[in-house]
């Protein structure tokens, strides 16, 4: 298998370390090179605009495509924006940035791969999502973690994008599949500002999540395409 990992945050870096340890072929595309790993396996992806994806996929012109693409890019806050607690805090620009970071990269990957795939291509596109973006979970009345409008709405959009892409690929590229995965809470920069609100026992080490995610992807069959799964492979509510 060969892997393309998007995002050099907590989980993306842990996946690269795990793949290196397993002796797999991998490339990490992100804003920062992962420390302690072969720099030749790193591609600087500073933005998530169409040009950045075009530049990344020139690497695959005339070369074999990866068999597994894992998109770990995710955005919950930045220096100027914290997750909203009330509707009055929703800022349309931040909502747009959240959609661009959380929902768009999967479709950018889908488009870049579709341009290079043939009807007999076999690959998995896996994007990390969040149960916080599940409408079913919200309807079940489970207590949320604050409104977090921009994050949760953009993860809901990501999930819909995965369903649509899986249905499109089933017709165009029947050997290729699309899933979204909720990894559970992890001790990564994404949770850094909220750590004192969380039970430390619930925060998983991303180094432990990475092998579970890779093992899960190794068990997928075509009937899983279009599903939203947890790390055990259990389907989650949309
Ligand atoms: N951690 C959790 O508890 C948790 C729970 C449920 C779901 N998830 C999901 O799991 C995935 C991995 O999260 P993580 O915990 O590894 O988070 P993380 O450490 O914050 O990593 C997120 C990555 O996304 C990149 N990114 C964000 N916005 C970007 C943009 N506009 N352009 C390019 N790159 C951008 C970040 O780059 P920089 O580092 O350069 O900013 C970072 O590499 C995310 O989709 C997250 O939503 C995480």
Question: What this model shows, in words?
Answer:
- The structure is a single chain.
- The protein is built from 7 helices and 7 strands; from the N terminus they run βαββαβααβααβαβ.
- With 238 residues, the chain is α/β, with parallel strands linked by helices.
- The chain has a single domain (2-230), classed as 3-Layer(aba) Sandwich (Rossmann fold).
- It has a 7-stranded parallel β-sheet, sandwiched between helices.
- The radius of gyration is 17 Å and the shape is globular.
- The model has no long low-confidence stretch (mean pLDDT 96).
- Bound molecules: NADP nicotinamide-adenine-dinucleotide phosphate.
- NADP nicotinamide-adenine-dinucleotide phosphate binds at residues 7-12, 30-32, 47-48, 72-75, 101, 128, 130, 183, 185-186, 188-191.
Question: What is this structure, in a nutshell?
Answer:
This is Short-chain dehydrogenase. One of its GO terms (cellular component) is cytoplasm. The protein is of the alpha/beta class.
Category from helices, strands and their pairing = alpha/beta
Fourth-tier CATH superfamily name = NAD(P)-binding Rossmann-like Domain
In percent terms, what proportion of residues is strand? 5-15%
- What compounds sit in this structure? NADP nicotinamide-adenine-dinucleotide phosphate
Query: How many strands appear in the DSSP assignment?
Result: 7
* Helix count, DSSP H or I runs of 4 or more residues: 7
Essential attributes:
238 residues, alpha/beta, Rossmann fold, globular, binds NADP nicotinamide-adenine-dinucleotide phosphate
């Amino acid at each position: 298998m060969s892997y393309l990992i998007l995002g050099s945050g907590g989980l993306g870096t842990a996946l690269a370390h795990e793949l290196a340890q397993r002796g797999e072929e991998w490339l990490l595309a992100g804003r920062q090179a992962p420390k302690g790993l072969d720099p030749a396996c790193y591609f600087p992806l500073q933005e998530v605009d169409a040009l950045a994806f075009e530049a990344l996929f020139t690497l695959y012109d005339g070369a074999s495509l990866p068999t597994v693409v894992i998109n770990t890019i995710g955005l919950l806050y930045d220096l100027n924006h914290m997750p909203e607690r009330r509707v009055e805090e929703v800022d349309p620009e931040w909502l747009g940035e959240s959609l661009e970071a959380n929902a768009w990269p999967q479709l950018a990957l889908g488009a870049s791969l579709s341009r290079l795939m043939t009807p007999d291509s076999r690959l998995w596109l896996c994007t990390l999502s969040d149960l916080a973006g599940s409408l079913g979970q919200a309807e079940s009345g489970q207590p949320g973690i604050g409104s977090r409008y921009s994050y949760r709405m953009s993860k809901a959009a990501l999930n819909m994008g995965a369903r649509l892409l899986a249905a499109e690929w089933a017709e165009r590229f029947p050997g290729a599949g699309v899933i979204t995965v909720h990894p559970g809470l992890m001790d990564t920069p994404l949770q850094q500002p909220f750590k004192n609100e969380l039970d430390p026992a619930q925060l998983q080490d991303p180094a432990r999540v990475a092998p579970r995610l890779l093992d899960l992807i190794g068990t997928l069959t075509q009937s899983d395409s279009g599903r939203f799964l947890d790390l055990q492979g259990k389907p989650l509510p949309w």
